[in-house]
């Protein structure tokens, strides 16, 4: 998953990731109760993450990269199956 988002310098990236993972996990489990049973007491998302600043690359380049990843995912016919 790739996300490009602005954040204030006073907010720790780890807190942002914690919020995104926690909130999205709850939303997914509410929509798919069978996952809640399957992953009870476990992590739905991987424990790790990678975070980087835009740095010397401009924002448009990053947006294009993220868009190209979505196209690659569609081409790979990603599916979740039991």
From TrEMBL:
<dbReference type="Pfam" id="PF01797">
    <property type="entry name" value="Y1_Tnp"/>
</dbReference>
<dbReference type="InterPro" id="IPR036515">
    <property type="entry name" value="Transposase_17_sf"/>
</dbReference>
<protein>
    <submittedName>
        <fullName>Transposase IS200 like</fullName>
    </submittedName>
</protein>
<dbReference type="GO" id="GO:0003677">
    <property type="term" value="F:DNA binding"/>
</dbReference>
<feature type="domain" description="Transposase IS200-like">
    <location>
        <begin position="1"/>
        <end position="69"/>
    </location>
</feature>
<dbReference type="InterPro" id="IPR002686">
    <property type="entry name" value="Transposase_17"/>
</dbReference>
<dbReference type="GO" id="GO:0006313">
    <property type="term" value="P:DNA transposition"/>
</dbReference>
<dbReference type="GO" id="GO:0004803">
    <property type="term" value="F:transposase activity"/>
</dbReference>
